[in-house]
Amino acid sequence: MPKITFLGACREVGRSAVLIESNSGTQCILDYGVRFNEEERLPVYSNLNRLKAAALTHCHIDHSGAIPYLYKNNEIPLFTNPITLRVSEILLEDMIKISNYPYPFGYKELKRLKQHSFFLKNGVRQKIDNNFYLTFFNAGHIPGSVSILVQVDNKKILYTGDLNTIPTNLIDPAQPNSMPEIDVLIIESTYSTTEHPARNTLEKKFIDNVVNTIETGGNVLIPAFGVARSQEIMLILKKYGYKNKIFFDGLAQKVAITYTNFPDTIKDFNFFKKALKSVEFISRRNRLKIAKSEKNVIIAPSGMLKGGAAVEHLHHIINDPYSAIYLVGYQIEGTPGRKLLDEGIFELNYNQRNTNLQEPIKIRANCDINYFDFSSHADKIHLYQYINDLTLNKNSNFIFCVHGDEKATTNFAGDLSNNGFNSIAPEIGETYQI
Ligand SMILES: [Zn+2]
Ligand SMILES: [Zn+2]
């Protein structure tokens, strides 16, 4: 029987890595990410002597961050697609450049990874060994993101990667009913215990807040992750006919320009291009000028205010009672964004790249602070809907719940068990025969 070993993302979000092994011992890795703020950042050790291929669901560092490590001694193909490779490269270069952590790889391995990349189109089956195949399907999470179907020794394993089943302005959702019957599901659990607000209502509330702030003469700072979220926010503003100035800063610019090279991955590419044309890019030099002028929307990473351009803009906005800071992504416990949201205090104890701050700062906010939950992950309702829409083989319906904290993964697995599924929240390093 084939085997699945979970090398990361077990009862945590971070270092996603799944090892699949066939009867004859051939190995394939799905994702190989890193986690942050921990001493041990890479997936756990496993003997990868028989590694024949790797495949990547999407560019986010918790999925792609450790892939270069696989290219220290290996010549294996990395199955991915052009947009995922390009944006991964941007993020990995950035990670290697700014990190103080001694990653056991660098630019050399990143180059080798690029040389060994092979592009797969969604829905096209790729052979990696006898009785061992991979197929990509749209995962609806960010542009280029895929779920991976592994067919090994006549078993079908579906690894969702990060998943979204509601349409966003940037991309189409995942389509579980387009999948073949599967035997084993490895599903993300990030929001398996929570519900997101209805998207339309949320968008309207967001626009109303932005327009109100701008009309009183203030600025709106939107700290947002540079990959996908910044561009989604731009599209929402434009969809509602927002006319005042919108600025992009930092990675949001670079990724937006990169997206223009991959028209097939964007839902309405013409609208995207039109929207992007009306957005102005901020250089380091004119940050202060823009912050001192009025009625600007500034979209800048990082999304949790841990550093980056957003922190510099924040300095000019936080004391102005007419301005606002709108957070548009999940704020992890312990991040400056979370503290700002919960306590109205911005506190940063260290200096990061792209941040010209020389000393620790602690400021009480005078401006409006609000949170809009524009998640790119399926919530509780949609994860269950996804499982319902799949065709699971009744004789071997294993479900593994990964990529969520302890509570999210174990509750999800427990609930599914109560509904008759053979479900497990695996622990790190565990191997299952299927
Ligand atoms: Zn992701
Ligand atoms: Zn992830």
Describe the structure.
With 434 residues, this protein is of the alpha/beta class. The protein folds into two domains: 3-194 and 376-433, Metallo-beta-lactamase, Chain A; 199-371, Rossmann fold, CATH 3.40.50. Helix content is 29%, strand content 22%. It has 13 helices and 22 strands. The chain has helices spanning 61-64, 67-70, 82-98, 107-115, 199-215, 229-239, 251-259, 269-277, 287-292, 309-317, 336-343, 380-389, 406-418, and strands spanning 3-6, 17-21, 27-32, 51-55, 78-80, 117-119, 126-129, 132-138, 146-152, 155-159, 184-188, 220-223, 245-248, 279-281, 296-300, 324-327, 345-348, 361-364, 368-371, 398-402, 422-424, 431-433. The protein has a seven-stranded mixed beta sheet with strand order 6-5-4-3-2-1-22. Helix 6 (229-239) crosses helix 8. The longest helix has 17 residues, at 82-98. The protein is globular. It starts with a strand and ends with a strand. Bound molecules: zinc ion (ZN) (2 copies).
The N- and C-terminal alpha carbons lie at a distance of 6 Å
Outline type: globular
The top-level CATH class of the largest domain is: Alpha Beta
CATH names the topology of the largest domain as Metallo-beta-lactamase, Chain A
**Spatial strand order of the main sheet:** 6-5-4-3-2-1-22
How many structurally independent domains?
2
Helix content: 25-40%
Count the DSSP helices: 13
Class from helix and strand fractions: alpha/beta
